[in-house]
Amino acid sequence: MEIVICKTREEASRKAADMITALVRKNPKAVLGLATGSTPVLMYNELAKDVKAKKVSFRQVRSWNLDEYYGLAPTHDQSYRYFMNENLFRKIDIKLSNTHVLNGLAKDPAKECKAYEAAIRRAGGIDLQVLGIGSDGHIAFNEPGTSLNSRTSIVYLTPSTIKDNARLFFHGRLDEVPTAALSMGVGTICEARKVVLLAFGANKADAVKGMVEGGISQFCTASALQAHNDAWVFCDEAAASKLKLRKYYAWRSATKLGSR
Ligand code: F6R
């Protein structure tokens, strides 16, 4: 796992966007795994700038998102499909028909999740997966206690995630946050050939510490990425503040990025 520690979240978002832009320039038909939440928004804006500046085109890119609230229609303004359309897809030249988000209204969630995995496989697997991290160490909606081999399935949110998300998405109204979601599994995520995880702010410092320097454990599902051989964490100083070896990681990642 490479840890890129930046002074600001803007700088970290730009560096992460550089990695995605470089990958899509090299492979215009890349398959991307995408995330929602507040964290990737700045990076999505940077990708939009790159498209506008004609540095890259997403016309042939296909994408699969990590998760969707169970019970929300794609048109619901708090759904992750709506979020992606607003925060990325309408700002870049990707074809909407090439973008995939789990159907939160699926009558048979198990069937929906199986079909989603099969579609990813048919596309050749995910070349690069974007991730955020929850304050409890979750990736996608894989909460503490989820098997590290889990596949895409219906999952249940912890009270702390419901609280975090109510603050950001549901105008603080806890009772409006769905308590279940359809989510890619930890095993599914770890199959991506490259992973770019973003983490900003002091409220992510414990989760980042657990992910990077804790043992691999289902109590911090992001820690499964320790076993991935091309996982990059782009964070600001606040999110990295609890890492014991932070100076070493910063130097090592700068050296590796500089030599690419
Ligand atoms: C979003 C997702 C979640 C978020 C995480 C952090 O698709 O899968 O794991 O990445 O909850 O959310 P923010 O970025 O809002 O702090």
The CATH architecture: 3-Layer(aba) Sandwich
How many domains in all?
1
Our measurement of the CA-to-CA distance between the termini, rounded to an integer number of angstroms, reads: 16 Å
The chain-level mean pLDDT equals 96
Give a list of the ligands. Answer: fructose -6-phosphate
Question: Mind explaining what this structure looks like?
Answer:
With 260 residues, the protein is an alpha/beta fold. The chain has one domain (2-258): Rossmann fold (3-Layer(aba) Sandwich). It contains nine helices and ten strands. The chain has helices spanning 9-26, 41-52, 80-87, 109-122, 159-169, 186-190, 205-213, 237-240, 246-258; strands spanning 2-6, 31-34, 62-65, 67-69, 99-100, 128-131, 153-156, 180-183, 194-199, 231-236. A seven-stranded parallel β-sheet has the order 1-10-9-6-2-3-5. Strands 4-8-7 form a three-stranded antiparallel β-sheet. Helix 1 (9-26) packs across helix 2. The longest helix has 18 residues, at 9-26. The mean pLDDT is 96. Residues 35-39, 66-67, 132-134, 138-141, 168 line the site of fructose -6-phosphate (F6R). Fructose -6-phosphate is lined by residues 35-39, 66-67, 132-134, 138-141, 168.
What key phrases describe this protein's structure?
Rossmann fold; 7-stranded parallel β-sheet; binds fructose -6-phosphate; 3-stranded antiparallel β-sheet; 260 residues; globular; alpha/beta
What is this structure, in a nutshell?
This protein has 260 residues and is an alpha/beta fold. The protein contains nine helices and ten strands.
